[in-house]
Design a protein that fits this description.
The complex is a heterodimer of chains A (224) and B (240). Chain A is built from 9 helices and no strands. Chain A has 224 residues and is mostly helical. Chain A has a single domain, classed as MetI-like fold. In chain A, helix 3 crosses helix 5 and helix 6 runs antiparallel to helix 7 (132-162). Chain B is α/β, with parallel strands linked by helices and 240 residues long. Chain B is 38% helix and 25% strand. Chain B has helices at 40-47, 72-76, 94-104, 110-123, 139-151, 169-184, 196-202, 220-225, 230-239; strands spanning 2-11, 14-24, 29-33, 55-60, 63-64, 79-82, 157-161, 188-192, 205-210, 213-218. Chain B has a 6-stranded mixed beta sheet with strand order 6-7-8-3-9-10, with helices on both faces. A 4-stranded antiparallel beta sheet of chain B has the order 2-1-4-5, with helices on one face. In chain B, a hairpin with a 2-residue loop joins strand 9 (205-210) and strand 10 (213-218). Chain B starts with a strand and ends with a helix. Classes of the chains: A mainly alpha (224), B alpha/beta (240). At the A-B interface, helix 6 and helix 7 of A face helix 2, strand 6, helix 3 and helix 5 of B.
């Protein structure tokens, strides 16, 4: 057992591929959630806007993105849109398409959070002479934040796992790195199990971390 | 101070306010009574444009607030509003609830706003609650703080939308007392309420609304002692 682990992973320094792949996975996930959050904010505001045009734009975006498998979207972005434009940096394309994908889910998460705040809060803010935007920033969003956090963090964890699809466009992320080791050594067991364990540790660790943050927030809320 | 001309409000096909014309002068305490569904709250909410009228005009201190080019946010600073469900901001302390608008709108410095808020809180005997969150105070205290929050903007008029309807019976008195104090100080008030005792005692004028119109209006004496329309007589029999 130890010998075969040594042969596949340690000998010839193949293990180095794994932290490299992990780095790419995390890079894609973090950048994508950043883009996704920004898009989510914008389109959530579109969704709750009174302007029909903006509603429709947001609806189309969310419906299209959520209705197509991630792998299909990724390949369309890479082969149909960016490659013909001469952009072949696969990691960058992955970041952009995962970001756009995550944005659709964030839109729904943020919208639900904002609409979950009692309508009377907006009315109270406006009746004091605050503008819509001021009321949003000072009164609605701080309250929405708490209900958004749990679903938002789970969206991030889903996103991390989802990035394994990036290997479809030849991005060498954690998944692809492990798969490359499998190809080189004809040993499927060790690289793929290592891959699974690392993903598991990552998601488990983040779940724990986020629930700790939530608990702390809930606590500080009660003591007030 | 407030002039309402031919105000109509429709929700879809449902006609809620049917051509209302009314004038409210400075210093008046106008109490609006009427059965539920008569359009009282909608009328009140039109006055500060929380509901946008379908047609008609509302002039506040000479400015037509239904004009789309008017900056309603600036006018609303001068029209306080108190809601049935208080609508305090649960994520802020009592003091922050009161100072949020004056500070955000840069009408007062933080120190001035806090000082002003504290003196208002002292006046209603709740200075010790300044740093707690609204979740830990009673309904009556919440509503009195909501009233103080609107007072912090130094409004020219305060609109009350059934301010005691969501309160436990033993809390109603303290809120009404504060409203009476405000009335005695000369504040212009428009109050939608089911508290007939308050209406009788405080109102300089009572509007009886029914079916989207002001069916009858007059002094407390005229309305309570000498109601003209059968509908008002029937309503008073039911509530008194």
């Amino acid at each position: 057992m130890w010998q075969s682990f040594y042969d596949t992973m340690i000998a010839q320094g193949r293990w180095i591929l794994i932290p490299k792949g992990l780095g790419v996975t995390l890079l894609i996930a973090f950048c994508a959630i950043l883009i996704g959050s920004i898009l989510g904010c914008v389109f959530a505001l579109f969704k709750i806007s009174k302007r029909k045009v903006l509603n429709i734009i947001a609806d189309v975006y969310v419906t299209v993105i959520r209705g197509i498998p991630m792998a299909t979207q990724l390949m369309i972005f890479y082969f149909v849109i960016f490659s013909p434009m001469g952009m072949s940096n696969a990691v960058l394309v992955a970041i952009i398409s995962f970001g756009i994908n995550s944005g659709a889910y964030c839109t729904e998460i943020f919208r639900a959070g904002i609409q979950g705040v009692d309508i009377g809060q907006m009315e109270a803010g406006r009746s004091l002479g605050l503008s819509w935007w001021q009321t949003m920033c000072k009164i609605i969003l701080p309250q929405a934040f708490k209900t958004i956090l749990p679903t938002y963090t789970s969206e991030f964890i889903i996103l991390i796992k989802e990035t394994s699809v990036a290997s479809f466009i030849a991005v060498v992320d954690l998944q692809k790195a492990c798969d490359n080791i499998r190809n080189a050594t004809y040993n499927a067991w060790i690289p793929l199990l290592s891959c699974a364990v690392i993903y598991l540790c990552l998601t488990l660790g983040l779940t724990k971390l986020f629930s700790l943050i939530e608990k702390r927030m809930a606590k500080s809320d009660r003591s007030k | 101070m407030i002039e309402v001309n031919n105000l109509v409000k429709q929700f879809g096909k449902h006609l809620v306010l049917n051509d209302i014309t009314e004038k409210i002068s400075k210093g008046e305490k106008v109490v609006i009574i009427g059965p539920s569904g008569s359009g009282k709250s909608t009328f009140l909410r039109c006055l500060n444009l929380l509901e946008v009228p379908t047609s008609g005009h509302i002039l506040f201190e000479g400015t037509d607030i239904t004009d789309k080019t008017v900056n309603i946010d600036v006018l609303r600073r001068k029209m306080g509003m108190v809601f049935q469900h208080f609508n305090l901001f649960p994520h802020l302390t009592v003091l922050q609830n009161i100072t949020l608008a004056p500070i955000t709108l840069k009408l007062q410095s933080k120190e001035e706003a806090c000082e002003n808020a504290m003196s208002l809180l002292r006046r209603i005997g709740l200075a010790d609650k300044a740093d707690v969150h609204p979740s830990s105070i009673s309904g009556g205290q919440k509503q009195r703080i909501a009233i103080v929050r609107s007072l912090a903007m130094n409004p020219d008029v305060i609109l009350f939308d059934e301010p005691t309807s969501a309160l436990d019976p033993e809390m109603v008195g303290e809120v009404l007392q504060l409203m009476k104090d405000l009335a005695d100080d000369g504040m212009t008030m428009v109050v939608v309420t089911h508290e007939m005792g308050f209406a009788r005692e405080v109102a300089t004028r009572i509007l009886f609304m029914d079916g989207g119109i002001i069916a009858e209006s007059g002094s407390a004496e005229e309305i309570f002692q000498n109601p003209k329309s059968p509908r008002l007589q029937q309503f008073l029999r039911a509530v008194l």
